[in-house]
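Thanks for the sequence, V.! I ran TIGR03619 family F420-dependent LLM class oxidoreductase right away. Repeating your input here for the record:
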Amino acid sequence: MDFGIGLPITGPEASPERIADVAQRAERAGLGAVWAYERLLRPAEPYMLGLNQVVPLPEESAIVYDPLETLAYLAATTSTIRLGTSVIDALYHPPVVLAKRLATLDRLSGGRLWIGLGQGWMAQEFEAAGVPVSRRGAGFAEHVAAMRACWGPDPVSFSGRFYTIPESQVGPKPAGLTLLAGAAAPAAVERAAALGMGLSAVVFDWDALGQCVETYRKAGGAGPFVIQVNGVIGDRPLDERMPLTGSAEQVAEDLARARELGADHVYWQPIGFDADGLVERIAGLAAG
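Predicted structure:
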């Protein structure tokens, strides 16, 4: 198991210099990966798919650097650290377009990509992308199959319910790309296993995470397992805290549970990126 950090790609303070600084410090400290995610927009009245309540996004979500352009920039300014997304909303992109972008970036980075793909959840983003929400589920599985066809031997062709690729030559092919599914609901977790993808899951509590992993393994999932922590490692212990947050000592104790669940990688995504010293604290856990 190794560790990583989410990049400072959101909010008015995000900048190319700051993003590169965090990635390069993480690489020098020996961390395993840096991570970016996708957010198309911050609507005036967002809500989560399937809930009857309005859930406003944080103000930082008004500015979110595109994950693939960000990682392409870092592919040229780093040399060994893995470059990850958790997640790209696959359904917002035509499969052949996303497949070419991912394969190109994987080549440019020397095969360092760990790409987390999700289905998307915000109705306004589906509307802006021109994709029906009903494409979730079967459409996601077909999207992954179409991309894998693009990455296979030429001539490439694909014919499905939602996507068609005429017989063509499609290149480049990826060098070492690893696919993860960002999933939490049991059906999505089982789908990830059936598609032969790894699993990327946000930890809110240990019981829910354990059930997620159990569902994945029972469905035959055998890919890498990544835990995302929406929080940081602080200077002092916390009485009330999320898993894998609090002091370095508290987090070190929690990591034993992450290992028991079979985690391959754990990374911390700072909220608003108030994370001075976080790279060093994560590196300290790795050394300990």
